[in-house]
Amino acid sequence: MQFRMDFTTSMIVCFIGMLAMAGCGYAKVGPKANEYSLALYSVCNQRDASRLETIAGFVETSLKKEELTPTEASYLNAIIEKARMGEWEQATAEARSLRKDQVE
């Protein structure tokens, strides 16, 4: 029994380590989502709440028109929500990460 618990524990630790090494980046997105991520980076960096809401509207409309996938919209909306909560620096960092993950 002791061996089994040690083995299970070590497997869990290895799995968590592999996840940490793999990172939690963004999947590739299409051109429309890429365009919005660039706009979000600019808006969040400037802390422009008015333009943020404009982009939020574009994301919603593009999702309804199926110009964005639900996954792409969720990435963008998560950034938008952080900015709406006043977490501008985190939103800027996430927009930057989304952009960066498109070129790697």
List the helices and strands and how they pair.
Elements: H1 2-22, H2 31-46, H3 49-64, H4 70-84, H5 88-100
Helix pairs in contact: 2-3, 2-4, 2-5, 3-4, 4-5
Q: Could you characterize what this model shows?
A:
It is built from five helices and no strands. The chain has 104 residues and is mainly alpha-helical. It has a domain at 31-100. The termini are far apart.
How would you describe this structure in keywords?
mainly alpha, single chain, about 100 residues
Number of strands: 0
Spatial gap, N to C terminus: 45 Å
> What order do the SSEs take from the amino end to the carboxyl end, as H and E?
HHHHH
Characterize the largest beta sheet: strand count, sense, and whether it forms a barrel.
none
Which stretches are poorly predicted, pLDDT < 50 over at least 5 residues? 13-23
**Globular, elongated, flat, extended or rod-shaped: what is the shape?**
globular
Report Rg. Answer: 18 Å
The whole-number mean of residue pLDDT values reads: 82
Summed up, the helix count is 5
Helix residue percentage: over 70%
Structural class: mainly alpha
Approximately what portion of the residues adopt beta-strand conformation?
under 5%
